[in-house]
Hints:
With 467 residues, the chain is of the alpha/beta class. The protein has helices at 75-84, 102-113, 131-144, 163-176, 187-199, 206-210, 214-231, 243-254, 265-269, 295-306, 345-355, 361-375, 460-466, and strands at residues 2-11, 16-24, 27-32, 42-45, 50-53, 55-60, 65-66, 69-70, 87-93, 119-125, 148-152, 179-183, 235-237, 259-263, 311-312, 393-403, 422-432, 435-439, 442-443. It contains 13 helices and 19 strands.
Amino acid sequence: MKTIIQNGTIVTVADIYKGDLLIENGVITAIADRIIPEKDVHVIDASGQYLFPGGIDVHTHLAWPFQSTGTADDFVSGTRAAAAGGITSIINFTNPKKGQTLLDNLQEWKKKGELSLIDYGFHSIISEYNDHVLQELPILAEQEGVTSIKLFMAYKGELMVNDREMFKIMKKAGEVGIITNVHAENGDIIDELVEDSLSNGNTDPIFHAYTRPPITESEATGRALSIAEAANASIYIVHVSCADALEKVEQAKRRGVQAFAETCPHYLVLDESYLELPDFEGGKYVCSPPLREKWNQDLLWKGISSGLISTVGSDHCPFLFEGQKTVGRNNFTMIPNGVPGLEDIFPIVYHYGVHEGRISLQKFVEIISTGPAKLFGLYPKKGSIGIGFDADIVIFNPNVSRVISREKQYQNVDYNLYEGRVVQGAITRVLSRGEEIVRDGYVIGEQGRGQYLFRKKNSNIETRVTC
Ligand SMILES: [Zn+2]
């Protein structure tokens, strides 16, 4: 099966240029000014449109049990939403059960992933330290291609590990070429502030933010980075929400720590005031870390521009408003923490980043595709448009605008964080390994066609040079 995409403007981290692409058996095999189609070649005309490498979202929580409920998207609805939103690969978090080995847990998650429409991989969460965990890490990396794990510094009793456990796990991870994702919030301080807040009768959604102030994130971020430094390990701070935490990343990078940071679209576009919306609407915006004061946004965008932030992940952790979020109507601690965003990450970052002049087209490609591919062992198979890369391509018309609304979304949620916003540009087609999975904005790919992503090991030297 051959496909030619003609007349598009190809965007990579290195270049922006007009050209034709030849795709054979799912891989890009030629790029030239003009490629003349032979007989029986499928031709797509992309005149006036950009060709971006498919988005890679390394932060999703599909089918994820959490806080005595579960996320609203599974691998069926979630990966359809991803495709519609220009995402062609995801790395989802597993969630271990008490007493279960990481490898057994991974097999359960790989089974769930078989329903996926796009390519998928996993980060293994480690919430319980024991000697088995250390023995399993090299097997995860070598035999399963799981070259990233995740540790939590908050959610005590559910996910949190202590400093000593973090150090031991990260040390081993560093030795075997695994990068550690860290959720950096000081769980102990937060638990204390939450108790105080409730005892004072402060139960509205805004108190979710007041009980997780920036210092709880920046302290934990700094500590995590120091632990990584002591352990000689690569670390990836997920969902950096505020300037104070970003400052810690900057300091660590200056010291030579193999430290990388991610932010999320909601921290770039939304702020703390959304938690104060009346009639419990604020409950829709409860996520951790919480939305911050608006001034932080500017510094996050600058962090992207300067390279301090390497990726934007959606942290797609969707819960229905009716029936899941509303459980916490009278007590913010009962509101499940998480927001939807997998379908919107690409258009939101394009609109507020590129269209509004905060970042360049090339930086957009870097944070939405190339950066995550390099950091998480997918490059040079995914993450760019070039000969030999998988033909994961988003065809994007920058000359039209559209309105984001929950009525048109594939995400299985009864609201959208960006409801009613007009964004510039529209995804017209998406190809995954050369196969059209989105046409005219509609998902046409089949469920279950996604492939498991066996990822390369993390190399400190490689990430230092490339990110
Ligand atoms: Zn998350």
